[in-house]
Specification:
CATH architecture: 2-Layer Sandwich
CATH topology: Beta Polymerase, domain 2
CATH superfamily: Beta Polymerase, domain 2
Structural class: alpha+beta
Mean pLDDT: 81
Distance between the termini: 36 Å
Strand order of the largest sheet: 3-4-2-1-5
Number of domains: 1
Low-confidence stretches: 121-149
Radius of gyration: 15 Å
Strand content: 15-25%
Order of helices and strands: HEHEEEHHEH
Shape: globular
Helix content: 40-55%
Largest sheet: 5 strands, mixed
Length: about 150
């Protein structure tokens, strides 16, 4: 099942998000723990977007939930939403996610930063003071948002 799902994730990237800088396929279905009602979770990251969004659709018979971000909105959801709620779902998807089509500098940096979010929730201190930021602009060279083409 995992190979089929990863194949679906690659096809989705080609069809819907060809200009994304990083995509993570995640969730119970990727871990092999999915049920008949599970969907494929995707975290899609572009160099820049007017705003983050979430979309649900079916692709190849597979239900998909896509969380589409750029570095700034991803940081906001990592820190201000998920960390603050004590439920770091989005960082966990990035940490556990399989990079589509393959790991790159951007996806590795996002994984490194996402690893800290759950640990910071456990520590219970305010990460806003002296926190690292998702300053990935040096990684975006050569990556263009589809609207810039």
């Amino acid at each position: 099942m995992e190979n089929r799902i990863i194949g679906v994730a690659h096809a989705i990237r080609s069809a819907r998000y060809p200009d994304a800088s990083a995509i993570f396929a995640a969730g119970s279905i990727v871990r092999g723990e999915g049920t008949a009602t599970s969907d494929l979770d995707l975290v899609v990251v572009y160099a820049s977007l007017p705003s983050a969004y979430r979309e649900s659709f079916r692709f190849g018979g597979v239900p998909v939930e896509a969380f589409v971000h750029d570095p700034e909105t991803l940081e906001y959801f990592f820190v201000d939403v998920d960390r603050a709620s004590g439920v770091p779902a989005l960082p966990q998807m990035v940490v556990e996610g399989i990079e589509i089509p393959a790991p790159n500098e951007i996806s590795r940096e996002l994984k490194r930063l996402a690893v800290d979010v759950p640990r910071l929730v456990v520590r219970g201190h305010d990460w806003r003071i002296g926190r690292p930021t998702l300053n990935l602009r040096h990684c975006w060279r050569g990556h263009q948002d589809r609207r810039e083409q």
